[in-house]
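Per reviewer request, we include the raw input and output of the structure prediction for the construct analysed in the revised manuscript.
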Amino acid sequence: MKFNYRKILFPATALFIISLFALSFNWFPFGYVGTTKKGGSGLGCVCHGVDSTAGVVVSILGPDSVQAGGTANFRVKISNGPAIAGGFDLASYLDTNSLYPVAGDTMVKRQDWELTHTHPKLFSNDTVSWIIKYTAPPTAGIDTLYATGNSANNDSTSDNDQWNWSLNKTVRIYNPIGIINISTVASEYSLSQNFPNPFNPVTQIDFSVARTSEIKIRIYDILGNEIAVPVAQQMKPGKYRIDFNGSDLSSGTYFYSLSADGKTISTKKMLIIK
């Protein structure tokens, strides 16, 4: 009887190729990482199809700014596609110790400093999402979050599954250091447009003081009610900057003004979107 080596060789070769494929994509038993656009063009969820699908919407929802060393919750959300079950991969550009599952969530795990799902999660009303914890680095700067998500039909195969990347989420890391003196020279009183605008929850406001004065920066709601006074003190001539934190405010339109010695110099509008 002649032994047929092909019966062993072909399956063994296929298994070896699949193993290499899995390792090359940092594939893990119940989810995988290394698929986002961090570092350039990402690999994507190739186990669920070769190409991304524009109809699948992957979003990273959360604040635009986080205090240095502080924490905030973000949400990775997937919509459309087969919309039976989904999974995700989330990475941070700036810090390898910034992403963690929220307490008690066994559906999300940390792997190679990224976050991924431990099991596919079922969609509800054409969407599925995960809440994650973000810890900002201890120094100010700009971070970026990257996500990839899949929308699967949950039939134990990759047939007709779909996936896509999210838009990159920029997160400003700021120091809560109060008023910053940018320059000791200023020829006039002025109030700049806040940046970013819209914002969530922190925005930057620059203003100038022409001579030593009692300076106030006031924040008003759309009805004209004063809701905050982030600056109220005597200040010397110069150009200044403050970070205004609107985490306690609801989404909507607000106004801020600069006054010197009781006289209003300028008023501008800003928008909070949460």
